[in-house]
Please model this.
Amino acid sequence: MPVGDEAVTAEIERILESNTFRNSEALRRLLRFLADKMLSGEADQLKEYSVGIDALGKPATYDPRHDSTVRIQVGRLRQKLAEYYRTEGKDDQWMIDLPKGRFKLTCEEVPAIAKSATNGADTVALADSVKLLAIEEKTAPARRATILIGAVLLIAVVWGAVATIQLWRARQEAAPFRAMWTPELELLWRPFLGANRPIIVSIADPPFVQFKGYGAYRDLTLNRWEDIIKSPAVTSIRKALNNADLQPNLYYAPMGEVNASFLIGKLLGPRVAALSLLRTSELSLQQLANNNVLFIGAPVFFENQLSGLPVQLDLVNARPGIHNLHPRAGEPALLVDQLPQGSAEDGEVHVLVSHVPGPLGTGEVETFTANRTPGRLTAVEWFTDPNYARLLVAKLRQPNGEIPRYYQVVLKVKFKAGVPTETSYVLHHDVKVMGQLSAPEPSGSPNRQ
Model:
């Protein structure tokens, strides 16, 4: 049934005034903007840049390639709409949706069967039928049988209607999440999705030195406490602060790791039963053995755990870049990073992603490492963004259409002012598993869900 502008406007206003949206001013502003464009017939011409400028108040210098605010807010809007129709809007006649990959809202009428089953009429009829079953014993047996059959049939109709509504709503709510997944993303994440193991996202927590009674200090080149306390810079600062006591501080995390964790949670959250976040300094060997683990951070914070896994690695991430221990024809033995000096934030860094088995050959471990946080964020983007995933799988894909079970991938990332500006694939190697491990299933095997 075609929907008129008045019905759309009324539904939008109902949503904007709901408790679900009441405290989300940015999402209310975005929804109203998209609704206005839908009603004016301009929605098909909307671009990410214009949404950022006109709806979210971004400056004229806003560049969607380097700022994902619009994509994040649009994703949140889809989730809020699903939440609204799951709660306050469950009885609305119309449903507003925002299909994945578009900025054009849709408005559809809720199926009639949904309305009839939720307005309570069938429940009243069911109650009346049940009362008929309590008639006096002298009622003719044939009539009692007729009433009983009618009541059973009515129950079946009601339950069928309820099940239809629940299925329809579940599909509406799951649609945005299903649209996020492409065949390439399924292929990259299948080992994690098919396993009955919780997933831990482990973020490196680089050590800061805390001057007791004063502030904290961080040297990006110092990642071990024993190196920090011997640092001439730390010694000079401590002397200037009247020999203040020193203590380690592990309460900070780089923004790149925070953003990368958000991308992983957004992608995997709806697909896995248990997903948690843990600082790497708290990650034990037992947790590594019992869970699937995704590590994001500088390589120095995971080198001990990685060295204990049953694999032979060709590629090692350590200053001044990626060391290729067994270079193939045409491959360099060292891929050197161009790291910023002093307070500069412009440079070029190589990223190493390693997918390996966990301890004893069980479980999955995937590490996203680089010597600067823009590289680590970019590495995760290659595994969560459909366009990057398509490029990556094309490089990894074998003649049989599958990708290696375990592998290492090297990417190169250029960044300015700490923001990634250019990224490219460099090379990849298969990973050799040591010991007498049972042959693992290929990641493209059809019996892995």
